[in-house]
Amino acid sequence: MDKQLEKLIKKIYQQKFPKKKFVPGQTYIPASGKVFNDKELYYLVQACLDGWWTEGRFNAKFEQKLAEKLGVNFCMTTNSGSSANLLALSALTSLRLKERRLKPGDEVITCAAGFPTTINPIIQHQLTPVFVDVNLTTLAVNIVDLEKAITKKTRAIFIAHTLGNPFNLNQVVRLAKKHRLWLIEDNCDALGAKYQNKYTGTFGDLATLSFYPAHHITMGEGGAVLTNNPLLTKIVHSIRDWGRDCWCRTGQDNTCGCRFSMQLGKLPFGYDHKYIYSEIGYNLKITDMQAALGLAQLGKLDRFIKIRQQNFDYLYSKLAELKDYFIFPQAEKHSEPSWFGFPLTLKPNLKFKRHELLQFLEANKIGTRLVFGGNITKQPYFVNYKINYRQVGKLANTDTIMNNSFWLGIYPGISKTMLNYVIATLNKFLEKHG
């Protein structure tokens, strides 16, 4: 049955997703995207045929395999990278952490040059985001500003490895330990990146991942929280699973052996442990179909990262002669980035604006993206809702990124032929405007 099914799905895949010839100027080159074959579809159909559909055997195997791959003790899947960020920050507000829990008014240091869902959980828990600047070449947190930002109110650091380039983990971890701060690594852009030969996402108290189609591997939608801390694992599981006190896996009962012999809160003795809630929680689980896709993708991760690095290096070598126009990306010292994109920042006093270049590229079927929210404090929701925050310095580099930075795609679906077209198109624009 399995071999017959596998053969049938392979045939359907070949019919449904035939290889398409790239035609310069006609075939669109997206900045990001998913790469898959019949293996993902085979795993997906298997999960469907199980008839279970919520998290099950594929999810258990995915969590185990990913934890083993990264060298972390616990991996907990969730329905998006944004939910992973919410879970990680929410866990640090739990009463189970006693005097170390985050409370309203506490400060959390982060970067304004980033994605909003790194910052929004801080706001939602009535904590104060403290924004520090970044470096233009690495897009990573400025360590000098980070140290200046720490006050008696500071309780945590929550920052991202932007576009797959690790931040200075030596210094950030040192400051977190020195001041007894929680550290959350937003690793959503950086699966497979290394710092001093150790995977990012394994240095902090918690870390997050995203499996959106733009990311290194995909489940369609999905994410994960990583940690080595058993207590934080229990808290994250609880918040993800409605806030319940029960730690049984989905479909299991009475793992604790005392399902009907507890008394918690003001509930009566013997209240079913499956319906006792100790955290303010949600249902943020994934389906087993998503996990099946992720498991198939996980086996391709090393190859995907290698292609991304090759595409990055190729673009860098071919665009190096354009140094009069652009500030080029640099890897953080001691790091091996798992590049998410190829960022470029326009130098001052050019004869053209960023939007003119991006419109030209888009008109020539080349996708681009900005560095997410630019300066998040300038976003409409920050202004309209009058969100309370503190910033260190003028965030000059953050504003430069907001006004002059963008990135090009290097994901595994982009071939060298496509990259050559991107290079030629960039040069064509600069010859006209340079």
Short description:
The protein is an alpha/beta fold and 434 residues long.
Percent strand? 5-15%
Share in helix: 25-40%
CATH architecture descriptor name of the largest domain: 3-Layer(aba) Sandwich
Radius of gyration: 23 Å
Low-confidence stretches: none
The CATH homologous superfamily name of the largest domain equals: Type I PLP-dependent aspartate aminotransferase-like (Major domain)
Structural class: alpha/beta
The major sheet is characterized as: 8 strands, mixed
Put simply, the count of helices is: 14
Summarize the helix and strand pattern as letters. Answer: HHHEHEHEHEHEEEEEHHHEEEHEHEHEH
Average pLDDT rating? 97
Describe the global form: globular
Q: CATH fold name of the largest domain, please?
A: Aspartate Aminotransferase, domain 2
Distance between the termini: 63 Å
List the strand order in the largest sheet. 1-9-8-5-4-2-3-14
CATH class designation of the largest domain:
Alpha Beta
